[in-house]
Design goal:
The protein has 117 residues and is mostly beta strands. The chain is built from no helices and eleven strands. Strands 2, 4, 5, 6, 9, 10 and 11 form a seven-stranded mixed beta sheet that branches. The protein has a four-stranded antiparallel beta sheet with strand order 1-3-8-7, with no helix packed on it. The N and C termini lie far apart (39 Å). The model has no long low-confidence stretch (mean pLDDT 95).
């Protein structure tokens, strides 16, 4: 069982910044893919940004140029730097990890991001 610990959410004004962190309880070489998703009230969960199994970094069109994904491989930790936040970015953000050789996908408990004046 993979444990994911998320942190960094909160309330921020439009135009502000937040940095989310996700720490996985498995070794870096066990991680096949790692990503952030978000779910706003009444909407489906959507991919925000992620590292794919073949080494690419992908971003949703709505966050390109504003959000930056990074990773500390030594600590199995992923970061999402969110700048120029908008009200539309308000959602619960979830960390997601896929592990090599395991069919199950793992989710964090979610961290709330609220962008409001």
């Amino acid at each position: 069982q993979v444990q994911l610990v998320e942190s960094g959410g909160g309330l921020v004004q439009p135009g502000g910044s937040l940095r989310l962190s996700c720490a996985a309880s498995i070794t870096p070489d066990s991680i096949k893919a790692m990503a952030w998703y978000r779910q706003a009230p009444g909407k489906q969960r959507e991919l925000v940004a992620g590292f794919s199994s073949y080494g690419r970094t992908v971003y949703a069109e709505s966050v390109k140029g504003r959000f930056t994904l990074s990773r500390d491989n030594a600590k199995s930790t992923m970061f999402l730097q969110m700048n120029s936040l908008k009200a539309d970015d308000t959602a619960v953000y979830y960390c997601n990890v896929d592990q090599w050789g395991v069919l199950e996908t793992y989710w964090g408990q979610g961290t709330q991001v609220t962008v409001s004046s």
